[in-house]
Amino acid sequence: MKLADLVQSADWKAEKHVPVIEAPDKVKAGEKVSVEICVGKEIAHPNTTEHHIRWIKLYFKPDNAKFPYEVANFEFAAHGESTEGANKGPVYTEPVGKAVIKLSSAGTLVAEAYCNIHGLWEGSKAISVE
Ligand SMILES: [Fe+2]
Predict the structure, then answer these.
(1) Residues 2, 16, 22, 41: which is the catalytic one?
(2) Has 79 been annotated as catalytic?
(3) β-pairing, 19-22 with 119-129?
(4) What is the CATH number of the domain that holds 34?
(5) pTM of the model as a whole
(6) Is the pLDDT of residue 12 over 90?
(7) Which end of the chain is more exposed for a tag (fewer CB within 10 A), N or C?
(8) Integer angstrom CA distances of residue 94 from 16, 23, 24, 62
(9) Residue 9 sits in which domain range?
């Protein structure tokens, strides 16, 4: 078995687990570009002690390279836990992350998200560099 066999993908507009990458379609080489990654853009994912998005990782795979590069790693640690019990806590972290990147070549951003009960999900976005 390969890890890739366990990672699910789908249209993010219809499936709440798919990480959505918001970034320009085209950037200039070396310019700072904001990239926002979230889960639940169209259909909100639950954020409860029992059911939540625990992390999102972002990778970049250059078109002309064999291997992907890790770009950012977002961990979401608060999901309503407290000594009062599940979902009685004062804070929840929403599954949203922002990174500022600079690219020198075109490629694809790939995001991987982990739901604590529904496993691994991925989404991607191609970016061209001029
Ligand atoms: Fe889930």
Answers:
(1) 16
(2) no
(3) unpaired
(4) 2.60.40.730
(5) 0.95
(6) no
(7) N
(8) 14, 19, 23, 29
(9) 3-129
